[in-house]
Design goal:
The chain is α/β, with parallel strands linked by helices and 569 residues long. The chain folds into 2 domains: 245 residues, Alpha-Beta Barrel (TIM Barrel), CATH 3.20.20; 191 residues, no CATH class. 25% of the residues lie in helices and 27% in strands. The chain has 16 helices and 32 strands. The strands form 7 sheets. An 8-stranded mixed β-sheet has the order 21-20-25-24-27-26-28-29, sandwiched between helices. Strands 3-2-7-16-17-18 form a 6-stranded mixed β-sheet, with helices on one face. Strands 8-9-10-11-12 form a 5-stranded parallel β-sheet. Helix 3 crosses helix 4 and helix 12 packs across helix 13. Pfam families: Adenine_deam_C, Amidohydro_1.
Length: 569
C-alpha cells in the first residue's frame, strides 16, 4: 500500500475531526489487544486505514456498533489452500466472511506436483483475492529423497521469486534431518533466505537439535503437539503456531500454554482444513472459540490470533484496533463465542460484492495423473517375516505409531485382516517418471470391506489407497485415474462416493459450496462402510508424509521416520 502527501493530509484531517471520516463504527466496544481492556468509543476509518479510536467521530458511512465488540481481523499464519480442496479464489470466498482477513499460504502441495508452474499459479492467485493472501516459497520440493515428486525446486528456483510483492519468505522447512546432516542443497536454501522470514516444521525436535535448527534463522513451528514441547520451543525463542485443521487438532493440547507472557510469541493456523469442516465448525473463528472454551484468557487468545501473528511475520501494519493500522476488523455478537456479525476488510464491509471483478486465474495441471491403469497383481505383498512394521493411525493426529504386528499369509502373500483392523495400504507413483509402488499395512481405519483412494498424499501427492481387498483397491485407483485426481470410496466392487479434484489432482474447479456438499455425501458413504474416522481421506493423505514421526509409507516403501530411512522389504 503506497501513500502520498495528499493521502496523509486527508487522514490527518479526518483523525482531527475536521472532515467526516470515510467510515465510522459508532456506539461500539472494541478489544484492545495491547492492554486487554474492552474499550468504548467510535472507530474512524479513512480509506484503508484506521485514523481514530477512543473518541467521537462522524462518518460519511456509519455503522451502528451497539451490542457488538470489534476485534482485529484474524490471521491464518500457515495454510495450504490446496488442502481446502478448492482454488485460492474459492478459499477466499469461504473464509473471509468468517473473519480471516489475512492468510499466509505455502503452496508446496501444488509445487510438488507442478514445480514453478504451480508456484506461479499461486502468486497470480494471491494478487486477485479479497483477503490479503501471502505466499511463502516452498522449501521442500520434494520434502525428502524417500519419495517421488512431480518436480524439484532448488535454491536458484526460489531466489527468482523472493522479491515478488506477495512473498514474505521461505515456507516450512520440513527437512530437519537434512539440517542436522548439513546437506548442501538444504543449507543453500537457508543461506539464500538469511535475514528474511523462514517458517519451521519441527515435530518433536528438542535439545541440541532444536538449537541447531533455530540457529539457521528458522522462526516458528506449527507441528507442536504438547504443552511441554511448546514451552521448550518458546523458551528458545521460537514462535509456536497453534494448529487446528481437519486432521491435526492441537488446540486442546496447547490452550493451556496461552498466557499473558506467552501470547506475544504465539499464533494460530489451520494448515489443512476443508470446506465441510469450515461450514460445520468455522475457520480461525473456530480456533479462537475452542481455545477460550478450554480456559485460555480471552484477550490473549485474540492477541495471538491477530497482533502476535502479524508481528511474527513482520506485518507491522495490522493486528490492532488502533490509528495507523489497516482497517481489517471483525464485528462480533459475542466475544467469548467469537460469533462473527460482519467483517471489514481494507475499510470496506465484506459482502458478496467483495468478490466481484476479481481477476480470474487459468487452472493448471489438469492432466497431472500420469499413472497407467493398475491390475490386482500390483497390490500383491510377498510373504516376509511373520512380524511386520505396521502403521498405527492415531485419530485426530498426523503422528503415527510404529507397530510390530503379525500379518497373515495366504498363498505365499501377506493379506489384510479386517477382523483386527489390519488393512493393506499402497502408494502408486503418479507423476510419470517411474512406476514405483510402495506396499504395507495399517491399523486405524476400522472398515471391514471396501477401499479408499486419494490423489492427495502429502507432500509428493502420489496415489494412496487403503483397503480390505485388492479387487476394491484396484477399482478405486483406476477410478481416480479417470477422474484425474480426487477422493474415491469403493465397496463391493462399486464406487459409492467420489470427489473429483482435477486441478493438479488437488483442487476442485467448483464453488466451495458444491465441494462441501459432495464431501458431506462422501463422508456418509465412508461411514456406512464402518470407518469411524472424522476425516478418513485427510488422515490417509498424511500417511505418505515421511517427515512426521514415526512410521509412514511412500511410493518407495515403508519409511522409519525416526531413523529417516526405508525399511527393507
Amino acid at each position: 500500500m503506497t501513500v502520498s502527501r495528499d493521502d496523509l493530509k486527508t487522514r490527518i484531517g479526518q483523525a482531527l475531526g475536521e472532515a467526516k471520516a470515510d467510515l465510522v463504527i459508532k456506539n461500539t466496544r472494541f478489544l484492545n489487544v495491547v492492554t486487554g481492556e474492552i474499550a468504548e468509543g467510535d472507530i474512524a476509518v479513512c480509506g484503508e486505514v484506521i485514523v481514530g479510536t477512543y473518541e467521537s467521530y462522524d462518518g460519511v458511512e456509519e455503522i451502528d456498533g451497539r451490542g457488538l465488540t470489534v476485534v482485529p481481523g484474524f490471521i491464518d499464519t500457515h495454510v495450504h489452500c490446496e488442502s481446502t480442496c478448492v482454488t485460492p479464489q474459492e478459499f477466499d470466498r469461504c473464509v473471509l466472511p468468517r473473519g480471516t482477513t489475512t492468510a499466509i499460504c505455502d503452496p508446496h502441495e501444488i509445487c510438488n506436483v507442478l514445480g514453478e508452474q504451480g508456484l506461479r499459479y499461486f502468486l497470480d492467485s494471491a494478487g486477485g483475492t479479497a483477503l490479503d493472501l501471502f505466499v511463502q516459497l516452498s522449501s521442500c520440493v520434494p520434502a525428502t529423497e524417500l519419495e517421488t515428486s512431480g518436480a524439484r525446486l532448488e535454491a536458484p528456483d526460489l531466489i527468482r521469486h523472493m522479491d515478488h510483492p506477495r512473498v514474505l519468505g521461505l515456507a516450512e522447512f520440513m527437512n530437519f534431518p537434512g539440517v542436522f546432516h548439513k546437506v548442501d542443497g538444504v543449507l543453500d536454501k537457508l543461506a539464500a533466505f538469511d535475514g528474511r522470514h523462514i517458517d519451521g516444521h519441527a515435530p518433536l525436535v528438542s535439545g541440541k537439535e532444536l538449537n541447531a535448527y533455530l540457529s539457521c534463522g528458522i522462526r516458528n513451528c506449527h507441528e507442536t503437539t504438547s504443552a511441554a514441547e511448546a514451552m521448550e520451543k518458546l523458551r528458545k525463542g521460537m514462535q509456536v503456531l497453534i494448529r487446528d485443521g481437519s486432521v491435526s487438532k492441537d488446540v486442546h493440547a496447547l490452550a493451556e500454554v496461552i498466557s499473558p507472557e506467552t501470547s506475544p510469541f504465539l499464533g494460530f493456523c489451520t494448515d489443512d482444513r476443508n470446506p465441510l469442516d469450515i461450514a460445520e465448525e468455522g475457520h480461525m473463528d473456530h480456533l479462537i472459540r475452542s481455545a477460550i472454551r478450554l480456559g485460555a484468557p480471552v484477550a490473549h487468545v485474540y492477541r495471538a490470533a491477530t497482533w502476535s501473528a502479524a508481528r511474527g511475520f513482520r506485518l507491522y501494519d495490522r493486528g490492532l484496533v488502533a490509528p495507523g493500522h489497516r482497517a481489517d476488523l471483525v464485528l462480533l455478537d459475542d466475544l467469548e463465542d467469537c460469533a462473527v456479525n460482519r467483517v471489514i476488510r481494507n475499510g470496506r464491509v465484506v459482502g458478496p460484492h467483495s468478490f466481484d471483478g476479481l481477476p480470474a486465474v487459468t487452472p493448471v495441471g489438469l492432466d497431472s495423473v500420469k499413472l497407467e491403469p493398475v491390475a490386482e497383481e500390483d497390490f500383491a505383498v510377498p510373504a516376509g517375516g511373520s512380524v511386520q512394521s505396521v502403521i498405527g493411525l492415531e485419530p485426530g493426529r498426523i503422528l503415527t505409531e510404529h507397530r510390530r504386528i503379525e500379518v497373515p499369509v495366504v498363498g505365499g502373500r501377506m493379506v489384510a485382516d479386517p477382523s483386527r483392523d489390519l488393512l493393506k495400504i499402497c502408494v502408486f507413483a503418479r507423476h510419470g517418471s517411474n512406476r514405483n509402488i510402495g506396499r504395507g499395512f495399517v491399523q486405524g481405519f476400522g472398515f471391514a470391506e471396501g477401499a479408499l483412494a486419494s490423489s492427495v498424499g502429502h507432500d509428493s501427492h502420489n496415489i494412496c489407497v487403503v483397503g480390505a481387498s485388492d479387487a476394491d483397491m484396484r477399482i478405486a485407483v483406476n477410478w481416480l485415474i479417470e477422474l484425474q485426481g480426487g477422493f474415491v470410496a469403493v465397496r463391493d466392487g462399486k464406487v459409492v462416493g467420489e470427489l473429483a479434484l482435477p486441478l493438479a489432482g488437488l483442487m476442485s474447479l467448483e464453488p466451495f459450496e458444491t465441494v462441501e456438499a459432495k464431501l458431506r455425501t462422501l463422508r456418509a458413504a465412508v461411514r456406512a462402510m464402518g470407518c469411524p474416522l472424522a476425516e478418513p481421506f485427510l488422515q490417509l493423505a498424511f500417511l505418505p508424509l515421511p517427515v512426521i514421526p514415526h512410521l509412514k509409507i511412500t511410493d518407495r516403501g515403508m519409511v522409519d521416520v525416526d531413523r529417516f530411512e526405508l525399511i527393507a522389504a
